[in-house]
Structures
1.
Amino acid sequence: MNKKILLFLVEGLSDKDALEPILSELVDSTKIHFEVLRCDLTASLDPEVRNLNMKQRITRVIKSFLENNHGIKKKHIEKIIFLSDSDGCYIDDSYIYFSENDISFRYEDDGIYTNRPNDAIDRNQRKSRNLNMIHSTAKVYALPIETYYFSCNLDHVLHNKRNLEQYLKEDYAFDFADKYENKEEQFIDFVNDSSLCLANNYADTWTIIQEDRNSLLRFTNLKIFFDNNFEFLKDEAKERVVQYQGG
């Protein structure tokens, strides 16, 4: 294998469909690979991970990826990029409201509505604890890792649709990727929009997303990915990033 890879871990197939075509055109010196987890690893109660902390959960995913992708060795992985929805996990419990008709969690600016508020509280405690562990970790399984969020979820950030029906997610994802086809550098403009960015460095973005109801609102720190991985970008992408770095 000639190139090392940036291994992106994402919750669902629509995440991959929306982002992989764009990011693959912006990165040059490494190969992008998206691994679809098909679950929210930060909140999962699956028996296989239930008693594992977040570092152990990610390690398990990496080992599984290597077992299922013959020809790719651990040494080929340049970095792990973990993408996660915030799902309002940092809000105070007082912003979780009982709503008889909401079987699942409904996210709004002012809180989470559900007929299972205790489940939402438990989920938030578990998810926030796991997110705090992984975003403050430099390495997992001896591999560098960075964690980026979409708030309150990817659909909210990319499409401004917070509670998008599952059956629509793929259509919206393909439409988003098509929007940036042959003009991928404009995606860097998108994630640098001041309405989406809370800060200009990794640590601060994680501090601010935990304040008040920010984890319910429309924010992402994905812009920091381009700053932190500048050396891997194509020249055109580097030029666009420099514009936002004041260079």
2.
Amino acid sequence: MRQRVLLCCEKPIIAAGFSALLRQEPDIEIIGEATGERVLGATERLSPDAILVVAPALTIIKHQRELATLAKLAKVILIAKTENVHRSIEVLRIGVSAVLSLDTSSAQLIHALRLVSTGDLLILPEDARDAFRPFPTSPQSADSASAGANLLTSREKQVVLLLARGSSNAEIAKELSVSMTTIRSHVHNVLRKLDVGTRAQAVAIAYESGLITEIETEDNARRP
């Protein structure tokens, strides 16, 4: 089954490049292109499976409401400048499925689209992940994450860490040597305990609050 993708980009030459790249994939269909001002109307008219948003088509800070609306209609992948990726943690919390930097390779982008189409997530590339570390923590999210972290089992913490590293359910199952059903159960428990609705939101809170750093420290301490 082909994944129907709407491309949202302000620059025609950049849009043409993304379009040409994705049209080479037999399981991906570019059904249209739109600017930030027209993307909502195009989404309602075309009903895409996924929307590829190339910032600043919709800037991260100024247009969160529009991104949240789009995320309710289709899976949204946001591509931002690498130096701005740390600001995009907010859009993960409002429903955006994945965030990539402009330094992302074409293979990573295509992989992300395919993961999103199956319900898995690719949050961000390795070279941009450190940008999340210094993000300021709000007291509410910190308290929520801290309370949730106290309820997480050691295996559930491993799942959070692997989700944050961009692993799919299948990759996590292989890493932890368990079944896909078990992983889905762990993910469900993580969402419930952190009081969020999506895996992206769980990872966003984990980064924002420092929970990821805490889990990584515990994970490193267990290693020989």
3.
Amino acid sequence: MARNKTKIAYITSDVTRRRTFERRKRNLIKKVDELSVLCGVQSCALVTAPGEPNQPEIWPSIVDAGKLIAQLRDLPSLGQDKQTLDQARFLSKGNERLKEQLKKVEKENREAEVKVALMRCLGGEGVQTADLDEVGSLAEGKVRAVAERIEWLTKSLCLAPLPAVDLQLRL
């Protein structure tokens, strides 16, 4: 049975807001505990109530949370920076990833263009001189792949080698 999607908005009723806060706080602490147990990681939770900023609830205990926070502070600044990203670094990493994807797509497009030019050449149509080098290298690669496949098949099937065939390209 599916639950309805909860609309995220400020709860205006004080009683409902307090009850919701307590329920969600219990669930949050339960999830932090599950994360700690299931994944074997150190974790802590610090939750402050809206009306009680001086009385935060700390899980698992003040001592354990203090030790974990001290370990985080003792990390060298490089280790701390590795854990967090500011917006500029987040965006630059995204840009780098997109640039790599763009290069990959451009390379695939160029290879597709060369294949089309090769098919035109084999079909008797003319080819632009700028594409000849790339068409030639693509054709040579295909010829090598066919020759290697023939060699592999003759070895794996224990057949007598085929007579050598001149597979020179004539453009």
